[in-house]
Amino acid sequence: MGNARAAGHGLDILTLLARRGEPLPAATIARELDLPRSSVYHLLTVLGSRGFVRHLPEERRYGLGVAAYELGSAYQRQAPLQRVARRAVDQLVDATGRNAHLAVLHGRDVLYVIEQRAPGAPHLVSDVGVRLPATLTATGLAMLAALPAAQVRALYPGREAFVQRAGRGPSSLVLLRRELQATRARGYAFEDGLVTPGLASVACPVLDHNGYPVAAVAVTYPIDSGADLDRLVGAVRIATEDVSRRIGGR
Asked: How far is CA 163 from CA 42, 117, 172, in A?
């Protein structure tokens, strides 16, 4: 198999896994792409060595790896996302009088790409360019909750993947899944004091046309401020739906 042809087949495998949205057995991949099984196994091994595919031995299936997600996220982190989201974040600050920011997933971290401070509001650690563990932030939990379960499992294969702060935050995949289930049930992500003591945040994801989380928007407020949580969540939802619509998403 020539290099160009092999590269094309490798991209076909990634496209199939992305389109199906769930891990697949090698036999299914070979059948749907009309490729010899031996070639498929070789390509999966190469893609796996570079992090684009992850083997799930207990299920005998292959799913997208962290590198594939980071590649997609890198596209969304480009200027188009920041341009279309800036106005929505500014309007969110105006509507709530609270600090607001937009972040994207970068591996197991969130990377802040827009941060807008409300007049008189306290300074936050979420400056543009700052990275924080996704499991400790509202934006991170909002995006993780919208990811396929297999992708979350690929990001957090063991306890060593988790970071806690002052003994708080999920320390295992079981606990993370519980937190993500609660996030999906309430319809937004919530964090209180894990990033900055005394401050809480609520966040919702920005979804692309496949329902995939390309970013998340959050507002942050003092825990003891008596903030109207329903009002804040509603304003965040308006912002994320606006950004999603502008990038051709849901």
From this structure: 35, 27, 10
